[in-house]
């Protein structure tokens, strides 16, 4: 059982958060609801008190004797803001403390998750995007809003995800926080615990690919994917923190590469193929996180493909792109590990179907690619791509037990680097 602070700001989507609160309570968690004053215009105080079973206040001048604006943040295991309006994001990013919710955010030492909901124009405004970037840079999780029907006839990105999706995403963050806290406590309480090196990759070269490739159809169109590059950036930052020299090969990304990496950019799968081979030579570890297009158009149109007067549908022929991961492994093995990394890690973004599960497809891919490790995750609408959380299973070709982990992408990156470090350490011995 955990203590959750559920902040509710003044948007029409506040009504959906009542269902999220019920899910938390059914899971056994204690929940303190902190509404903003405007949010009470949408859902009243009585609703929150009935569903939470606790007193609900929105001002620092209510229930003063308990000093709630300090105590709630200090005692929380997780803070969730849903819906998070543009106003609340701005106040959180600038560190304001003009009501109970914003003051609580300044005293919270736990993980904080924002679930924005607003009209598309407000979500896409540069000010909102800058505030989101600021919050993410501080370690907060900001869940991208869903794309769908908004207030009135409007539709687009800005819709609050469904309560069940929010419950799954925020619970994953909570579980990661609990595991991290327990691990730290166990380490500090064990007098004989061996303290691992804080920089296990000191003197090592790690090459990482990230982002999604784009295969041009004509001067304005391309075949691409939903990869944002966030997981690759998180891995690169974790590798830098662990002491590695990082060579970062970036395809198209929604976020900037970390400072301190040796950056190479690539657009298409063919360009990425060449860039990865170049950056991997002489490295100790290669992590292939990029989402590479399996196919590309067989022909590129020099001018924009026009709609025809006869309404005929265009026919686009596709050809297979090279398999970068398999090609790197094959060349390394053929040359007796002389120039390419002895440890190669692939990523498999999978969807299950009637023929097999995500893990079954992942295990088959690990065997087919020939790499030492494969990170498998399930992808789909509102899963992984563009999100701040991830759930992965790390498979090893040597038969080591799989490592399963769910959490923020930064936490996933840390677990992956720890798993790789253990493998490198055993090889060095």
UniProtKB/TrEMBL annotation:
Any Pfam family the entry gives: DFP
Recorded GO CC terms: phosphopantothenoylcysteine decarboxylase complex
Alphabetical UniProt keywords: Decarboxylase, Flavoprotein, FMN, Ligase, Lyase, Magnesium, Metal-binding, Multifunctional enzyme
Stretches assigned to the Flavoprotein domain: 3-168
Renumbered residue ranges of the record's region Phosphopantothenoylcysteine decarboxylase: 1-205
Positions of the DNA/pantothenate metabolism flavoprotein C-terminal domain: 202-422
Single GO MF descriptor: FMN binding
Binding site for CTP: 294, 304, 322-325, 347, 365, 369
GO term, biological process aspect, one: coenzyme A biosynthetic process
E.C. code: 4.1.1.36, 6.3.2.5
UniProt family annotation: In the C-terminal section; belongs to the PPC synthetase family. In the N-terminal section; belongs to the HFCD (homo-oligomeric flavin containing Cys decarboxylase) superfamily.
Purpose: Catalyzes two sequential steps in the biosynthesis of coenzyme A. In the first step cysteine is conjugated to 4'-phosphopantothenate to form 4-phosphopantothenoylcysteine. In the second step the latter compound is decarboxylated to form 4'-phosphopantotheine.
UniProt name for this protein: Coenzyme A biosynthesis bifunctional protein CoaBC
Protein's gene: coaBC
């Amino acid at each position: 059982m955990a203590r959750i602070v559920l902040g509710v700001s003044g948007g029409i989507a506040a009504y959906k958060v009542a269902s999220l609160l019920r899910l938390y309570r059914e899971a056994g968690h204690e929940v303190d609801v902190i509404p903003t004053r405007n949010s009470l215009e949408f859902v009243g105080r009585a609703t929150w008190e009935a569903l939470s079973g606790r007193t609900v206040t929105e001002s620092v001048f209510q229930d003063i004797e308990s000093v709630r604006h300090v105590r709630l943040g200090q005692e929380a295991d997780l803070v969730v803001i849903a819906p998070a309006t543009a106003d609340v994001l701005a106040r959180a990013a600038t560190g304001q403390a003009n009501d109970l919710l914003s003051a609580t955010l300044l005293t919270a030492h736990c993980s904080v998750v924002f679930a924005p909901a607003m009209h598309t124009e407000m979500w896409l405004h540069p000010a909102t995007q800058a505030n989101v970037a600021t919050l993410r840079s501080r370690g907060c999780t900001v869940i991208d809003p869903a794309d769908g029907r908004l207030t009135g006839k409007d539709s687009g990105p800005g819709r609050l995800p469904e309560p069940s999706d929010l419950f799954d995403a925020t619970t994953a963050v909570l579980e990661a926080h609990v595991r991290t806290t327990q691990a730290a406590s166990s380490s500090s309480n064990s007098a004989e615990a061996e303290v691992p090196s804080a920089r296990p990759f000191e003197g090592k070269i790690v090459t990482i690919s990230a982002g999604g490739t784009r295969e041009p159809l004509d001067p304005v169109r391309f075949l691409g994917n939903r990869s944002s590059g966030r997981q690759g950036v998180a891995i690169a930052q974790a590798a830098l923190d662990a002491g590695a020299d990082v060579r970062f090969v970036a395809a198209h990304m929604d976020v900037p590469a970390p400072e301190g990496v040796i950056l190479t950019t690539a657009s298409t799968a063919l360009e990425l193929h060449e860039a990865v081979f170049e950056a991997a030579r002489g490295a100790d570890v290669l992590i292939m996180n990029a989402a590479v297009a399996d196919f590309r158009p067989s022909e590129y149109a020099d001018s924009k493909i026009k709609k025809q007067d006869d309404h005929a549908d265009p026919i686009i022929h596709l050809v297979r792109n090279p398999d970068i991961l398999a090609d790197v492994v094959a060349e390394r093995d053929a040359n007796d590990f002389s120039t390419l990394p002895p440890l190669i890690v692939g990523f498999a973004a999978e969807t299950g179907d009637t023929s097999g599960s995500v893990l079954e497809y992942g295990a088959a891919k690990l065997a087919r690619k020939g790499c030492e490790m494969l990170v498998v995750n399930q992808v789909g609408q509102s899963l992984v791509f563009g999100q701040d959380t991830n759930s992965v299973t790390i498979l090893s070709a040597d038969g080591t037990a799989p490592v399963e982990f769910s959490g923020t992408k930064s936490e996933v990156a840390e677990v992956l680097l720890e798993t790789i470090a253990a493998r490198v350490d055993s090889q060095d011995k």
